[in-house]
Amino acid sequence: MRKSSKKRTRLTRKLGLPPGSLVHIGEIKTEKPSITLIEFDAHGVTETRFDSLEASRLHQPTRAKMWLNVYGLHDPAVMAEIGRRFKLHPLVQEDILNTHQRPKSDEYADYLYIVARCFDFDTESSTLNSDQVSIVLGRNFVLTFQEQATGAFEAIRERLRAEHGAMRSHGTDYLAYALLDTLVDRYFVMLDNLGDMTEDLEDLALSNPNPALLAEINRVKHEALMLRRAVWPLREVLNTLSRADSSFFTADTRLYLRDIYDHTVHVLESLESVRDSLADLLDIYLSSVSNRLNTEVRILTVLTTLFMPATLIAGIFGMNFRVMPLLEEQDGFVIAMGMMAVAATLMAAAFWRRNWLKTR
Amino acid sequence: MRKSSKKRTRLTRKLGLPPGSLVHIGEIKTEKPSITLIEFDAHGVTETRFDSLEASRLHQPTRAKMWLNVYGLHDPAVMAEIGRRFKLHPLVQEDILNTHQRPKSDEYADYLYIVARCFDFDTESSTLNSDQVSIVLGRNFVLTFQEQATGAFEAIRERLRAEHGAMRSHGTDYLAYALLDTLVDRYFVMLDNLGDMTEDLEDLALSNPNPALLAEINRVKHEALMLRRAVWPLREVLNTLSRADSSFFTADTRLYLRDIYDHTVHVLESLESVRDSLADLLDIYLSSVSNRLNTEVRILTVLTTLFMPATLIAGIFGMNFRVMPLLEEQDGFVIAMGMMAVAATLMAAAFWRRNWLKTR
Amino acid sequence: MRKSSKKRTRLTRKLGLPPGSLVHIGEIKTEKPSITLIEFDAHGVTETRFDSLEASRLHQPTRAKMWLNVYGLHDPAVMAEIGRRFKLHPLVQEDILNTHQRPKSDEYADYLYIVARCFDFDTESSTLNSDQVSIVLGRNFVLTFQEQATGAFEAIRERLRAEHGAMRSHGTDYLAYALLDTLVDRYFVMLDNLGDMTEDLEDLALSNPNPALLAEINRVKHEALMLRRAVWPLREVLNTLSRADSSFFTADTRLYLRDIYDHTVHVLESLESVRDSLADLLDIYLSSVSNRLNTEVRILTVLTTLFMPATLIAGIFGMNFRVMPLLEEQDGFVIAMGMMAVAATLMAAAFWRRNWLKTR
Amino acid sequence: MRKSSKKRTRLTRKLGLPPGSLVHIGEIKTEKPSITLIEFDAHGVTETRFDSLEASRLHQPTRAKMWLNVYGLHDPAVMAEIGRRFKLHPLVQEDILNTHQRPKSDEYADYLYIVARCFDFDTESSTLNSDQVSIVLGRNFVLTFQEQATGAFEAIRERLRAEHGAMRSHGTDYLAYALLDTLVDRYFVMLDNLGDMTEDLEDLALSNPNPALLAEINRVKHEALMLRRAVWPLREVLNTLSRADSSFFTADTRLYLRDIYDHTVHVLESLESVRDSLADLLDIYLSSVSNRLNTEVRILTVLTTLFMPATLIAGIFGMNFRVMPLLEEQDGFVIAMGMMAVAATLMAAAFWRRNWLKTR
Amino acid sequence: MRKSSKKRTRLTRKLGLPPGSLVHIGEIKTEKPSITLIEFDAHGVTETRFDSLEASRLHQPTRAKMWLNVYGLHDPAVMAEIGRRFKLHPLVQEDILNTHQRPKSDEYADYLYIVARCFDFDTESSTLNSDQVSIVLGRNFVLTFQEQATGAFEAIRERLRAEHGAMRSHGTDYLAYALLDTLVDRYFVMLDNLGDMTEDLEDLALSNPNPALLAEINRVKHEALMLRRAVWPLREVLNTLSRADSSFFTADTRLYLRDIYDHTVHVLESLESVRDSLADLLDIYLSSVSNRLNTEVRILTVLTTLFMPATLIAGIFGMNFRVMPLLEEQDGFVIAMGMMAVAATLMAAAFWRRNWLKTR
């Protein structure tokens, strides 16, 4: 039986605890938290990887702007330390650890907290996985938190490292924008995957309908919904950020946010089309099953019908009339058998021409 | 015949009475009202259980903040007494007793009246039960009213009693928040249960479709709707409370309310997915019934077809030709019977290979 | 053929007439208009029944507040007289007589005009009937107009007459509220009736599907829609009245209006659930019809199959082999017949066990 | 093949022309434009019919208010002349000639331009036809333009001519209101017709389902949509006109506009119910077709079953046992035939009782 | 397997690139960018075609207003040059090259950027193709960018060239309006094509349902959605432009924009009707398949039934009664055969009359 184990986890861990307790809620996907600090300014980039909390405490800032990235959230001590350093509100800390948040943005005095979701497509099992990405944008820092290293942000790191990259000269708000842009671009890939899966399911529903397909259809429906739930509120977040007169994004970066806002609208519209197709799938599957059964009954009826003339001929030559043709002749029996064969063959040919002998 | 007896009760008791009359409307679930007073401040907690109205009248307050909890609403005298003590508006008193209110919040000069619903899952009958929870939040008191002791608030009591619990130092608005948070956390459990029931019903619809299932599907649909009706308006209430500049919640607690607001949105979105699956269930059930019938007709047709060749062979050897093979031979009959058996076996094998002999 | 005769009436009478002409549009349900005047103040109640327009003209007011109730609207003269006495706008008069108005409230300088609908359940024919109730609320008077005496307001009259009733001391706005409250309470009864009818139809659709049911389903759908159309705009009216700063309702009464507003929201939500079930009904009916047919075909196929082995045995013993068992024996025929009986019985037993001999 | 020729016309004529070109777009329904001028004031009415543009140019106004009505729009010269006389904006002129406008109202400095649609029911072909009605309301004139004389406004002309009609003393805004009221009243008639057609189609779908019905269902759906598209924007227009502080309608007439606004809401709500029924029609039709087929298969199976016992009896008496009952008796054959007849009759009776011999 | 290759392209090219990079995203449809400059004022028109970027750099403006049209976007150098000349924001340049934008309008200080889509119907493959049209409206210039030369704007060029065309005397805002008007007029043609395709599919679904049709239905659904996605946001754009107090459109031209706004609303409404029909198509197709199968089973059952009486007659005359009619007579056999023929013919006639022998 399929059980939605994630939600279960949420509850067994959370129920009865006071709000604001720092407990990681979600699946543990990484063995050890991995903390990387990228400091940058127009002149260059310094990257530091921390192995322990102590190491991080000793670190002295080297450049004006920094990006702290954390993979792995199951160690509350790390969160507590970072929270203390950057003065994050307890609710923000709790939301970072509880990886089942809806995308949203909360503005605090010193930083902007943005929750989004990063999607990954597991080509082996053909499933969509999603991971919560928490982005904290301060005046001169960006913090990012994720359960797992998906490599989604690797291209951005490359651009920061690049010799002549314009990226370094922009503020941290532009970095935050670049991160969001990357996430939204991934939604297009997911959209493609969902579209492909839907088409495959449709082909299967027509060619080989079996109950397992029903579970598959449900799964893909669920994943489409999952994607929608990630994009829909993010669209609202981007709309707000791009319009509101916030101190965290410059007017220039807000223009770029408007651009990804347009992309999320695009994703949502395309998603509707995928969801429409998925809604039709159940109907197609159900009638495909029904038609398959009917086709089989048709074949059986064809077989029955093929025997009818032969049986009648046998019956006719079994009649007890005194005067009857063929009975006394040497080849009578062979002729009768021939008549049977001819009748059956003619009928079979007629059915064959109409494609009634195929199971489709 | 299933009758919605609750609504009936509402009407037979209420029709013809002047508005504002204190009559308990709803099922009586508790024998005797149970009244508990928890007084608390940063230093400690005092708990008192009242056996009679008189006892409660004599009670002198011992600490700055208090939480009065009432289980059992069928005795209007209790309500009237509390109403008089806390100066509750007649409409509030009426709404507390009439346990079929929609979640809402009404702000009065001296207190805020919040109606929410507490859900319980009866694992035995696999049904969701819901109970109205009335919360009256004053400057230094919280009143809670419920039909039945569900144990939902036990964890909060524990946290109040805890030696170093931060709970006691917060105001009563934080207590009200904690109560609402508990209720919303329960909605997630209900969501899980609804999801499981839906999946079970789907399995049953495919494996053993019978009309009783239809009533089950309707019941679960109804319960999903019930949950939705409890959460939808609560979401609005939380939105208003967390945004409005009310004097009953501090800015800090409002941040926490925003958090449960997010949770209710999450519940509603997940609920939509459950409702989608439930909507598909009827189609699955109906075509499953139809397919089962068709499968049975297929088996019957298979049986008919299996007899055809044998009958034909018997007919052939019943023909009256003078010259016919086998008829005069000693083993003729056995050979004929063998031909029949072979023909039937071959056909049966072919059908077997195609799975046409299974009822699925 | 079912024709919606009401709308027809509307048109044949109205088309071509100048707007504002006082013509009664709707079914005539009462023989003679019945006009009752209830005058009341904190000290007592005076009731007067007018037999003629002349009698009413001579009447002198006796108490500060009054409620004039009119049953029967087909005599325009009555309307004209009342309209002149209370200075009602021609459009208001026209709307009172045209009993197919949507619920609404129109505020004029001296009075507030409210249209609502009163529902009645005819238990004999299991149909919902609705009647337009026009309420005109002035500073110290309430006028109510209805096609037919439904007894809906009898309880309110009783409360006015009651010795110690608080009702008399309230203003006429409270009376108007009480009238609306009564109407909304009736909607709950209608909701129950619709729910019961839906369940009955579902049972019938499964046990005895016949085309007449289709008309029934349509009828109940139509009645659910009728109720919805009565409640939906009334909800808006109540929302407006309870919020707006009108001079016709005191702040206190507005609180009570808010309460019935909540009830109408409740009715509408429950109605959605009924409408969902009704929407499923067509699917259930249609597949029930289809399954019934398939079940019958299954029985027929079972019968056909039962004859197959007997026919084969007869065929076998009809073969003309020289050497055949049993043929020459005394009991051969009886044995053959026994074989047939055994084969048919075994098959019938197998089918019986699988419930394939039942028409369901 | 059904083609939507109207839209085609629109395009072939319009594509490539500069906007604002005066080209009539729509079907030509009248041979020669017919122009009638009704001048009126409280004292009387003067009617003039113009045969040529020249005649109209020579006309001198005789009374304070006037109503110019034009039937037939295919002669751009007429439009150009009127446009010049009343100083109509080129876009207004273009919209009057292009009869596929959505209902709307455009306010210009000197006049208000209102587009609505007039519906006609062709009882012969049971189709709804609609025609664009353009109303230009100036300070003391009303212009109306229509493709075709439908007689819709005849009653209004009668009221203007009537000796004691109050109509003449009202301003031209009241005349415009009366015209709109007439159009809206016609929508109710169309609603009735749509409802009747839907019921007829439902009866046909059950009694005689054939593919032609599918086209019919589509046609009626299309007409319901056509009506909806005419009413929906008109409702918005009326809402705006009745609320806005326009100089073209007096406060008093705006009250009347509010009244027709309510009527359009009523039409739209009733239309929803018709559209719901139409949406169900496809399901009813499709399963009716399927059930009809199944019923026919049932009859055929009944026939097959009826022959089974007779065939078995013949087989039994064809067996070659030495000792068999009846064979040697004089009446043996007749008895056997009787047995066959009795068996078939009994079965037929059983089937008859269950109504399995009817094609329904 | 059908793959949505366009989106793929988008991603493989874009992923990992910094935002604002000038990369053409979309299909390359034109070999070489074709740049045409039309300069015009009230006195005349000058047209110049540039073969190279250099040629364009040398060009000196000859008239007050100009329209620069670019077909083919795959050469970023062209875009960069134009961008520099007209000082276009990098995001605008990026959006022009990325041809998967949603229709929108962005107002900058010196120009207004409008994205719309141009539709083309490929009559050969019966498919709708769409191309992004970017319009940049400055104070005295209009820039248009398109992937491909569709000829959509040819008529406008003609009107500019025309001797007495009023077009030249209008400002560039009127030109922008004319371009948008042309695009919207094309939507009507697409609507017609979609309507025709839907009707054809419906006919096919009834006459010859095969799985390929399912893909066709999906394709047309997808194209209807594509059209909707092009029109829906454009409607919003036009609404904003026609209302907002923008400096790029004169009040007069805004009136004309209002007109095309009305047209887009019209397109969207008609599109809904097409989409409704498309939604029904799946149901019609699925039940058509099912009915076809049932019809075939009916024919087979008819055939079976036709053999029954003949087989019975043969069985009867095969019985071994000593005394039987006809057996000893000379013509007995012929009479028996005649009886068989008559019985079969009568039955066949009965079935024929009921149309049960047609495959439909």
Automatic annotation (TrEMBL), chains A, B, C, D, E:
InterPro entries registered for this protein in UniProt: CorA_cytoplasmic_dom, CorA_TM1_TM2, Mg/Co-transport_prot_CorA, MgTranspt_CorA/ZnTranspt_ZntB
Taxonomic superkingdom: Bacteria
Pfam families (UniProt xref): CorA
Keyword Metal-binding: no
Membrane topology of the entry: Multi-pass membrane protein
Family: Belongs to the CorA metal ion transporter (MIT) (TC 1.A.35) family.
UniProt-listed PANTHER family: CORA FAMILY METAL ION TRANSPORTER (EUROFUNG)
Protein name: Magnesium transport protein CorA
